[in-house]
Amino acid sequence: MTSVFQRRDRSPRRAFAAAAAAALAVLAGGCRTAAPGGAAAAAEWDWGPVASRLTDAHGHTRLRAAGPLFERTLDPATGRRFLAARPFYAEVSDPSTGRSNRDVLWPLAAGKTFGKQMSWRVALTWYQDFDTGDPNSRWRLWALPFYFQGRDAQGRSYAAVFPLGGRIREFFMLDRVDFALFPLWVKSAQNEVRSRTLLWPVLSETKGKGIYRFRVFPIYGRSAQRDAYVKKFVLWPFFTSARYNYPHSSGYGFILLPFYGRIRLTDQDSHLVLPPLFRYTRGARQNLVNAPWPFVQVGWGETRRFYLWPLYGRLRRAGVATDFVLWPLGWRERVDRPGAVFRTWKALPFVQYERETLRRPAPGETPVTKRYLRVWPLFSYERRGAESRLRALELLPFRNPPPVERNWAPFWTLFERTRVGDARDTELLWGLYRRQTRGDRAARTSIFPLIEWSSHRPGDAAPAARSWSLLKGFLAVESEGARRRLRVLYFFRIPLGGSREP
Q1: What is the pLDDT of residues 36-88, one digit of tens each?
Q2: Taking CA 205 as the corner, what is the angle to CA 203 and CA 210, rounded to the nearest 5 degrees?
Q3: 207-208-209-214 Cα dihedral, nearest 10 degrees
Q4: Pairing relation of β-strands 433-438 and 442-447?
Q5: Domain range list for the chain
């Protein structure tokens, strides 16, 4: 099966990108800039937020136009490509992994491929093909919650129209669901467990290997798993009971709402008064007092807990330490893992900070490998090893998911500074102000369209180059070694200081 999401030749998006690139090339004609990058700089040009073609700090070639509206980026090392005509369309593809993602007026529609797998979504309608090269492969088309059709991994077809009836296979955790005039009749299967329900959820029976469940909800219900437990309820939720036969924790328990409950097992003994408000548990590994829940919780043993909810809370267990103040606004957590320590601080919705620190860094290795700070809605700062990014504004009070990064975040990104090793890029208002530095080898600064200046030091026998210009070349001075020249009215070049033009 061939999908429209997989076609690459002569597609409208490719034609649009080619036309846009051609138009921008005409716009940039005669106005190339000496951007950092050596030999590649000849192919670069910059018209600020109007249009630009530059090599960024990652070494990617990026073509942009109309501020945040159009962008095309290529990573020459991996072949990874990105194309966006915001907010209508965005696509990222990576031939090295076989992955691609496409968004159309996100969150309205999206599609993705991974190897031979392909899927797309329009609103609440999903389509997925698990092998586009096999016409008999597994696939599904679901228009939630009304229509379901597809073919499962064993090649069996199915279809259903909700609530009239039909069969659905591989439905979330279930292997098969049959229904007619839902909720009148439902039958489901998961491995060897079979369930039948009439007037869901009132009358139901489940049978399987060592499993039996029966209920007439809410009057009576019984659930049993051989050699494990038997649970019952009468007039749910007022009376529930259970008997457990686990190897290291056996016994019984019951709760009579709203008066009293008791759980007595070989490894713990619990009393509940006005459940779930008051509870006292004493066990071999854990003790707990709720008085009343959830406002006062005290625990000791394998997990140490002290909560005065929602004012203050403290929890400690092996490898995890958590504190909160004015839940859920103030939050602090430390997670210890064999190779690293992860720390998180949150003062929601305004401040979020995360840090990953290596336990035993190698000689010369930076202990802090990852760091993230968000001060909503002002800015975010992120560092991963030798890379970092500072960005403002940040309108979402949480990390942007990838579709937001591709389609919407550039609209409110008024300032951005990126560092990769000794390469740095700084932009304000989508290129109205732009500065690029590549260590001490090259630098370029532009305030569009007023002035720009640049310098390039190759570091070998090649001469250093410098330039500055007003109004994109209306008046400019360019120098390379001992040669200097003046450019007037964009096209007229006059040698200076006795230098000779080649």
Answers
A1: 544 444 488 999 999 999 999 999 999 999 999 999 999 999 999 999 999 99
A2: 160
A3: -30
A4: antiparallel
A5: 317-412
